[in-house]
Amino acid sequence: MEPTGKIALVIAGSTLGQFEASPQEAIRALLPEALAPLCDVVEWSRQPSSHYTIRLTTDLLEMLRSLVRDGYGGIVVASGTDVMEEMAYLTDLLWPYPQPVVFTGASSPARRSSNEGIVNLQQSLIAAASRPAWGLGVLVCSRGELFAASEVAKVYSHRGQDFMAPGTGPVGEVVLEDLYIGRTPRRPAALSDLVIPAKDVELLWASLGGGELILASLARTEGLNGLVLGGFGTGNVPPPWIPHLKTLIRRHVSVVVASRCQMGRVLPLYDFEASAKRLFEMGVLDGGNLRPLQARLRLAVGLGAGMDPRELQSYLQG
């Protein structure tokens, strides 16, 4: 491995940051010997990832962009795993640089999974320092595998192999001290300007006969910027939702439908009440092959960038 330059290790709240004192020296002792002189530890936050918000993640992103401007050749972000896939995806949407950002963490508290966290940290640093990772965007490293932020999902709540990319698999792997890339992921074109995403974008999952009371409340909520529907199958929702969705659309609230399925996309296959085809006719935007969590973040970024409905639809499909 030929390092590409200085590497920043950002502590953003993972179990790696749960030291009683400053983690600087404790973490330095865990670094790969060849990379330790090239690595600077940046202690940014110790809070659990479940406490993060879109705005707080944007603040983290702004700091990461400043590190690239300061000359760092790669960045590792050690954070909690609860919302890592969302933090990584939002970062990827606004990461126009070739330098890699690698998110990593551990699935259990440090006292129970110290070896897992150490291995993930070391392999993430190897990946972030490697030239083959340049141009791949934001990655998530778990158990030696590298996943694209646009594809990764947390699939286990507590097991070590908690991240996978359903339908695609990893883009590469770390073996010993080298990074091997098997394919280049398809990722959305990153916005070059740092956009402040809209913060009041909600997500409502379709369930068997459920959701109407929640949607009725949202339809009465002032200040709602956007709403993503996690629809059944190819994008269908329960019929009782329709009057409330019409209310939101009349109020010019952007509504997007995505499929709650792990793979596949929204399609106007059926012409019954509350089908995806009828939703499109009402003015609901098509989330394409985005998962609902991704569609929410993409919508928030698009609204923050001031996109009109036509631009939003293009951005959701891009």
TrEMBL record:
Gene Ontology terms for molecular function: asparaginase activity
Domain of life: Bacteria
Keyword Hydrolase: yes
Keyword Hydrolase: yes
Domain Asparaginase/glutaminase C-terminal per the UniProt entry, residue ranges: 201-315
UniProt record, GO biological process: asparagine metabolic process
Keyword entries, A-Z: Hydrolase
InterPro entries registered for this protein in UniProt: AsnASE_II, Asp/glu_Ase-like_sf, Asparaginase/glutaminase-like, Asparaginase_C, L-asparaginase_C, L-asparaginase_N, L-asparaginase_N_sf
Coiled coil: none
UniProt-listed Pfam families: Asparaginase, Asparaginase_C
Annotated ranges, domain L-asparaginase N-terminal: 16-180
Similarity field: Belongs to the asparaginase 1 family.
Name of this chain's protein: Asparaginase/glutaminase
Annotated source species: Aminomonas paucivorans DSM 12260
Source organism phylogeny: Bacteria, Thermotogati, Synergistota, Synergistia, Synergistales
